[in-house]
Amino acid sequence: MHLSTSNSEAVDLTQPELESVRDLSPRTGILVLLAGLALIMIGFEVISPVVLQRLSRTERRVETELRAAKQLQPLTPDGRPTVLLTGNSLLLEGVNLDSLHDSLASQYEVSRLGIEQTHYLDWYFGLRRLLEEGSRPSVIVLTLATDQLASRFTLGEQFAHRQMSLHDWPLAIQESHLDRTTASTYFFAHWSNWLADKGVIRQRVMILLVPNFRLLAMRIADHGAHVRDPKLLLSAAEQRLPELGELARTYGVKIVLLIPPTLREDRSREIQAIGALAGVPVWVLSPPGELPRSLYMDGFHLNAQGNEIYTGRLADQLRHPGW
Amino acid sequence: MLFDTPIFILFLCIVALCYWQLGFRNQNRFLLAASYLFYGWWDWRFLLLMIGSTVIDYFIAIKISEATDPRVRKSLLVLSLVINFTILGFFKYFNFFADSLGHVLAGVGINASLPVLLIILPPGISFYTFQEVAYIVDVYSGKLPPSRSFLDYGLFISLFPHLIAGPIQRPAHLLPQVQKPRNWQSDKAFDGLMLILEGLFRKCVIADNCALVANAAFAGSFGKPSLPVTLLGMYAFAWQIYGDFSGYSDIARGSAQLLGFHFMVNFRQPYFADSIQDFWRRWHVSLSTWLRDYLYIPLGGNRKGERNTYRNLLLTMLLGGLWHGANWTFVFWGGQHGASLAVERKLTRDKPAIGGALRKLLKQIFIFHVVCVSWIFFRAQSLRAAWEMLKGLGSWSWRPEFPAAFLFLAVFSVPLLLLDIYLETTGGEYFSAFAPVRWRVAFGLACAMIIALMGANQANAFIYFQF
Lengths: 323, 467
Description:
heterodimer; A: alpha/beta; 15 helices; 5 strands; 61% helix; B: mainly alpha
């Protein structure tokens, strides 16, 4: 009993010392913590593109399409002109690529680069980078709604990483009216896989954690402010369509603006006239309100039936482009 | 620079590394330059305004201490207050008062076209103005000798961790720290790093995610206000603003600690308050104690009878509300808190507190909801929008995305609730504050992983930056 008590006392006395011997000093703690943080950053930087490719079908598609777009030359080896369709979900849902590809196979080689939630600035700078890097499709069809043509919105860090070239950084900042802090984040995102990918990876985590997250995401996603003021729409077109025309002339490609069908008045006819003056064809294959609501999934994107009609019209237009 | 951006992390690393290589006076010079760079990053014109305001108060404080005639001293005090509040009033409230006056005149049939100026609000002006006022008042009342070094005073006002959104530092607490050499203390620096990580967790994981739901609810993306929409908006904003501001305060305190400074605690688990008075002892402590010491007590506090006490409470909170922003919604929010404090005082005066865990819990839940309702006014764009949102509590609608929205909100608010339970029961300043260092390192790294994986992608400026 006595022994036991003395043993117990001995243990009590030495316990804190043992604990402190085993524990790290705050100085070592700082070093380990900083080293750990650096490792985490490097780890995410290296792993995120791999993880993303595995997790997301969309990211796989975009990467594949981007790689293919970079290789495009004006003509295929058998002499057919190449057409690159670019745009956002309005293109992805509105045009059936396989069907278009098949119906134009004898005349064109059609490929696509579709990135959801992208607007004009994503594509203006995205096309500049693509063309700088050697892509030379014969025709680029840029699919944007008129309010997206006027928008200052970009896809943020993903845009900075995937579509913006570094020397366009100051211009991209100026055009999208960003403050210095966001501008600096774009600068870092241009180099960083993680900054660009984290949004998509987080989305995948949320899909796992929250049932029906996709439904919720449609409500909480930031699509940027919609430009509805006709004056702003037209003045943006007056500034931006000549920019596209200049880009087309610089690289010797043809750029066409394709305005997808809408339920409401979108000033597409006026923008078509501005495009004619700027030397950029603007295709309005379905005037506003022509296609009934039943051909839309959600009031914006066409459903399968609408997509079939619209793809047919695009194929006809490409067969007889009128240039 | 926002605290949750790569540029700030880089800035902080460079500043901390260079700072500890320098001697005391050079440390102050370097920090002042770094703080001015930090502030001028937004707009260098705002920097000139802040420097101008700092210079004026620096000299007035010296003149006050040198003057022997009480009337001269008082005149100098009034001069400083007039200058400070005129600058604040012009930049923050000119259009608000011009617009409100226009409405009042229109109401009595006078159509006066009052000028509306395109004024950009300088970041942090409310915070540094309050800090300057506290300094002048403390010097006037003899609590503090004036700083004889512009370098020290300038650094006290502009030290970058507190510059934009506080915590509002008391001169008697921070100025002596600026004036004395600071030594590297590994344990404090380690705690600072942990506070920064926990702050980033609160901001990027909790606040920015809750903001997605709050923004959608208040913008009408879930449809017209109804019970589920209003609850979503109300709860989401309650956790957003708490995560946002307490996260900011933690990062500010952690950054200061890395540089050898100590800042006061700004939040003490406010949603566990069991009375409105208790809430204000826990929420934005640096502002509530400022309002108490420099407004409520000079007004007479509770020393001049019950009626005057209620008046003082209401007036203090109304002005506290207005301090937050130039909108009647903030005035109403402040008034609601002032009225709640007065009613609470009336009801509980001279009555002994009745104990019991269940009773306390029920009171905490009740107070949380009183605070949540007040957040509707704080968040809404106008009183009309706030009223519409509030009316939603009486109507019903359902959409398929609501269960996901509530679950999403729970995923991001429950961790903060659990963290607060831990902090409330242990008295620690951050999670695992009393654990061995190795466990704290593990927690810090886990926290970093969660921030990396779950931090919202959307860059949201800190809410209090606009104040």
